[in-house]
Predict the 3D structure of the following.
Amino acid sequence: MFDAIAPRYDLVNRLMTLGLDRRWRRATVDALALPPGALVLDLACGTGDLSRLAARRGYRVLGADLSEGMLAANRSGVPVVQARAEHLPLADGSIDGLVCGYALRNFTELGAALAEMARVLRPGGRVALLEVASPPPGPMRAGFTLWFERVVPRLGGLLSDRDAYRYLPRSTAYLPDDPALRSLVRQAGFSAVGRRLLSGGLSQLVVATRVGRPGAAAPAAADSTAREVHVAPPGPRAG
């Protein structure tokens, strides 16, 4: 599905969020609050929007995504690797920060993916997770529901893949509510788990810190083994 929508993924994102997703992605990268030169993983990097922003902040950036089509359309200019979120080809405690945009609800094993994020992050490292949300009850929620469930699938069908953008509103059912999501993040090995709503609740940003003293050896996750990363250069450009 993601291979199919890759060529027009950025265009549809801009249109269905009325351009607000750019502001939300900037907030995500800003939330890392790491020094220049920090190594940041963009998990489920897609076409590379977050990767580009992180690189402009002076971070060293790696991208990872399962979709070959997305990696082929990636225009970020950073090294990318094809990998599952639950099995990243990175050594324990090898990165300083991690960003992930609109992918949590697509991970079939969310708890395992969060534990893997914790494994590859150094103690004191930061994670910033951007996801969809829903505004509080009221006129804004009613308008959001109409737009997200009725207009977005039709817009996606006109410009890209109709079935994929019908799936998008339904995919929110796979995302835990706020207390459950925070609990999963803490259980994976994070502390100081914070969440804030963006643009009145159209999106949400979850930020957390890897448990452990900065500079100490990374706590080993269950069944974790050090893995050597083999990072490919960006794939062929689409379009």
User: Anything to note?
Assistant: Residues 17-133+175-210 form a domain with the Rossmann fold fold (CATH 3.40.50.150). Confidence is low (pLDDT under 50) at residues 219-239.
